[in-house]
Amino acid sequence: MRKLLNAHSKTAIEAYYIEMGLMPIQFMIKCRRLLYWWHINNTDNSSLINKVYQAQKFNPVKNDWINQVIQDKKDFKIDLDDNEITKISKLRFKKIVKREAKLETIKYLNTLK
């Protein structure tokens, strides 16, 4: 990124992210995971994806995907459950996730700065 912007080698990478309005990859992955969670909850209950999700939800094991989703919801301060998520449109949920991701990204980058 430094070569692309022709910047000094001592400039903090966090400053580039803030200045350019970019989001670190870890936050993008969390966004995608939450959007996939919305997708799973809006599929038919007889689908294989939904059955696997329900199995993980009722019998979680260490490092399961559902545990990561729960942590992502805590990180982004999204307190919706499965029933509430089915009532929200995809576009509205995507806006909620993006807004919370931007807020968390700014907090994260400012603490590193």
Explain what you see.
The protein has helices at 2-5, 13-20, 25-41, 48-58, 65-75, 82-86, 90-112. The chain is mainly alpha-helical. The longest helix has 23 residues, at 90-112.
Give the helix/strand layout:
Layout: H1 2-5, H2 13-20, H3 25-41, H4 48-58, H5 65-75, H6 82-86, H7 90-112
Task: Put the structure in a nutshell.
With 113 residues, this protein is mainly alpha-helical. Helix content is 70%, strand content 0%.
Distance, first to last CA: 17 Å
Radius of gyration: 17 Å
Strand % is under 5%
Low-confidence stretches: none
| Biggest sheet overview | none
| Secondary-structure class | mainly alpha
Structure characteristics:
113 residues, mainly alpha, 7 helices
